[in-house]
DNA sequence: ATAAAATTTTAGACTAATCTAAATATTCAA
DNA sequence: TTGAATATTTAGATTAGTCTAAAATTTTAT
């Protein structure tokens, strides 16, 4: 009934809806790497299937939103499996999870979740929704909004693009580390950190915007 | 490049090639639950892609055969994972594995195989080929060819259809059991067994043809 | 307020995979 | 060996998903 293609569109619209104020045809086209013409055409089909509210206002219906969260749930559970159980590295799992997220069996998803002992986050620190679509609240902020002098825990990355994750690996940055903000440059947004009381690391604003931290203690 | 649809055709042709002398359009159509017209059309595409030798003689090329074995390998490894790791029952795994077998990542397949500790057979006793496509030799025969009075080990089932597996569950039959052939009726091919020196079980020829045994000792 | 720029939709075409109905080809049996 | 039955292929159509090019609409800037 719902194709893999449609699932990918719904997921794209969900992610865009989280950040952008209003989701546009061209933004979906950009994200899906398709032409705006194809997207326009697809939106008609999504509307006919009751997955988006309206053709002008690209917003997911409850049904569409639930579907998106199920796919994200599967994606993140599989990523966790790949890293925790099969010893993949965090930069290797995204494209495989893109395939596994479309496997349809709610029993499989629940058994996988149980096997992994109900993880709250995936290898990139992203929250894993439960089977009703509820996300755990992680109260994170982007590093770019951190206050100088304060101490934080590195919680998640905003994207799991391979080259970005490799860049973090090269800088020695890992989820769970304690980061003290040494200084923040106003004119370019760059940040200087002390990582685990040991190494100093400089980060550009571009990177800092994609790193999420929380002020709490380690788990 | 190679679609899920094509993978399913190649797998069907491989299985038919194992049993039937010559594979026919109508046999493929029957197995795929498609019309002969669709199959005829698809065979042209398979030939163009170098997956079958000829349009008249439906035989897989080396490339096609290797592809088939890779898909079967993945199917059986995933079935093993579902039963051994996620506690599924043997009659629940086939349809999920039908989806998982199309996930493309040879690294994933190898890591899964390693995690499962290089299993030789899947939950239905079917041999799992290695990454080069070589099957372990299990030297099995159908129960219908067993000799009365002799003792065998129940090694595998020839089909993993859910209703067939449920039938076996109801009779208390499980892989690895020792079966002594008490008698074999010539006129209808039915068989009477002593299972693990405890229970007597009667089986029709239809069932006996789909149960595979070997004469060796337990592993 | 209007023209230019950007965005979106429509029109028309293509591919993969399927179907039914009709035409062909092959096999089998009298 | 020849007509009937069976099997296969072709013809023509359909659906999902994509494209480019052109038309229409909306936004932005002068
Ligand atoms: Mn991912
Ligand atoms: Mn992730
Ligand atoms: Mn199976
Ligand atoms: Mn099996």
TrEMBL record, chains A, B:
Residues 1-61 form the HTH dtxR-type domain. It comes from the Bacteria. Signal peptide: none annotated. SMART domains: HTH_DTXR. Keywords: Activator, Cytoplasm, DNA-binding, Manganese, Repressor, Transcription, Transcription regulation. In the presence of manganese, represses expression of mntH and mntS. Up-regulates expression of mntP. Homodimer. Belongs to the DtxR/MntR family. PANTHER family: IRON (METAL) DEPENDENT REPRESSOR, DTXR FAMILY, TRANSCRIPTIONAL REGULATOR MNTR. This is Transcriptional regulator MntR.
């Amino acid at each position: 009934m719902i194709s893999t293609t449609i699932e990918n569109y719904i997921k794209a619209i969900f992610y865009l809806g989280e950040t952008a104020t209003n989701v546009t045809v061209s933004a979906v086209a950009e994200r899906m790497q398709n032409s705006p013409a194809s997207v326009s055409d697809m939106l008609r089909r999504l509307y006919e299937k009751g997955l988006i509210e309206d053709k002008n206002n690209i917003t997911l219906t409850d049904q569409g939103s639930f579907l998106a969260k199920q796919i994200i749930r599967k994606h993140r559970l599989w990523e966790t499996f790949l890293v925790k159980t099969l010893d993949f590295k965090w930069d290797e799992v995204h494209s495989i999870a893109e395939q596994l997220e479309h496997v349809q069996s709610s029993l499989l998803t629940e058994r996988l979740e149980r096997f992994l002992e109900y993880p709250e986050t995936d290898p990139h620190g992203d929250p894993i929704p439960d089977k009703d679509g509820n996300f755990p609240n992680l109260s994170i902020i982007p590093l770019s909004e951190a206050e100088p002098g304060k101490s934080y825990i590195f919680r998640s990355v905003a994207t799991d693009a391979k080259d970005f994750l490799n860049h973090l690996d090269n800088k020695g940055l890992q989820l769970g580390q304690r980061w003290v903000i040494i200084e923040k440059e106003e004119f370019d947004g760059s940040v200087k950190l002390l990582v685990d009381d040991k190494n100093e690391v400089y980060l550009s604003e571009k990177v800092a915007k994609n790193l999420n931290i929380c002020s709490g203690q380690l788990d």
